[in-house]
Amino acid sequence: MPVVSIVKGEKASEAVRKAVDLISGIQKIVRKGDKVFIKPNLVVPLAKESGATTDPEVVRAVIQIVRRAGASQIKVGDAPFFFYKSRKAFEVTGTQTVVEEEGAEAVYLDEEEYLEIESPKAKLMNTIKLPKVLLDCNKLITVPKLKTHTMCRVSLAIKNQIGLLSPEEKQIYHRTDIHQKVVDVTLAAKPALAVIDGLTAFEGQGPTYGDAVDMGVVIAGTDVVSVDAVTSSIMGFEPSEIPHIRLAALRKLGEMDLNKIEVRGASISEARKNFKRPSADVMGIYPNIEVYVGCACYEGCSAWARVELDRLRKHGLLEKVGKINMIIGQDAKVPEKLEGRTYIIGDCAEEHKDKGIFVPGCPAFGILGKIQPMG
Ligand code: SF4
To answer: Which of 23, 97, 110, 147 shows the greatest Cβ crowding within 10 Å of its Cβ?
Structure first.
């Protein structure tokens, strides 16, 4: 039976050590001489107080236990969302300082060489490009943030895998098929251990426009599906509500049935906090934003349009943009005359491109940052 530990109310160093001791101890996971790659969540250059990125003190604690287990090499690597640079994310989050102080090696994945490997069990990505530096290691430890996600519902151990992809492969299958994509990356590079940083967590419109939550919890396990199932339950979700957890369990990557997972330390109910749920809805959210949707992907252009609205709200710009129309998806029914500025979002809405500003793409990533205040 897979084991997942929950440790509450401790400093990062104590919480990580106790959480890993409760599941088996690090010596059963990392052997003397292992080359270990540690993957935090540095999706944006935002400090830990934001709740959006892994607390560098959790990364420090993981480095320390891995070193004590006798690892011969410890690398810490990630690349943020492709709008940003790894070096900036390492610096702003404080990960750079921690990695240097602990004598580990920082790996900026957006500057690395990627190798194409075969992944015959994958559904979408039968060949997948992974960083050479990761393939040269023999243990992957994922250190995700505990947070919600507009497209994936939750962003935990399985979702954290997406940061391993090359900049080009990050941008494909980023629609409804994102759920399968993160499972495929996990099939190609399965973590030996997940340590979830839930000291300060993140709820609502994650991964970047939600709200920080003081949780004070660290969760650990060697079965990433079980770790995600238990953590989702702590957040107030049924694990079966999360498509990538269901898919990962179906692909035998691990166990999602809470009755078949042993929880040690605190119980799920002791740690539980019902998180504000993320939403990719765009219609009827704001009075000055009129949305015309045809057949559109909820996790694709709809979600990216919502992320742009969340950005405007977070920065207090929503009222300053005036009347905005958004046209999303195929066969949207749109009036002849539209008042205000109009954005046509995504390749499958191209038939309306003469009505305003066309943002191409599948999905239309370019909508993020596109809508600016009037005058
Ligand atoms: S362009 Fe169309 S198919 Fe592609 S993500 Fe957008 S809505 Fe989905």
So the answer is: 147
Residue 329 Cβ contacting ligand 1 at under 6 Å: yes
The CB of 177 under 6 Å from ligand 1? The reply is no
Q: End-to-end CA distance of the chain: give it in Å, rounded.
A: 61
Angle at 162 between CA 49 and CA 372, to 5 degrees: 60
Pick from 90, 189, 195: which is nearest to 142 by CA?
195
Copy the structure tokens of residue 156: 């935990």
Is pTM beyond 0.85? Reply is yes
Query: Ligand 1: distance of its center to the CA of 38 in Å?
Result: 34
CA separation for the pair 164, 169 (Å, rounded):
10
Residues 77/107, Cβ–Cβ less than 8 Å: yes
Residue 107 · residue 75 · CB < 8 Å: yes
Q: Is the dihedral of CA 17, 18, 19, 22 positive or negative?
A: positive
pLDDT tens, position by position, 349-363: 999 999 999 999 999
In terms of Cβ atoms closer than 10 Å to its own Cβ (0-12, 13-18, 19+), residue 196 is: buried
Domain ranges of the chain: 3-271, 289-367
pLDDT one-digit tens code per residue, 239-279 = 999 999 999 999 999 999 999 999 999 999 999 999 999 99
Report how far ligand 1's centroid is from the alpha carbon of 291 (Å): 15
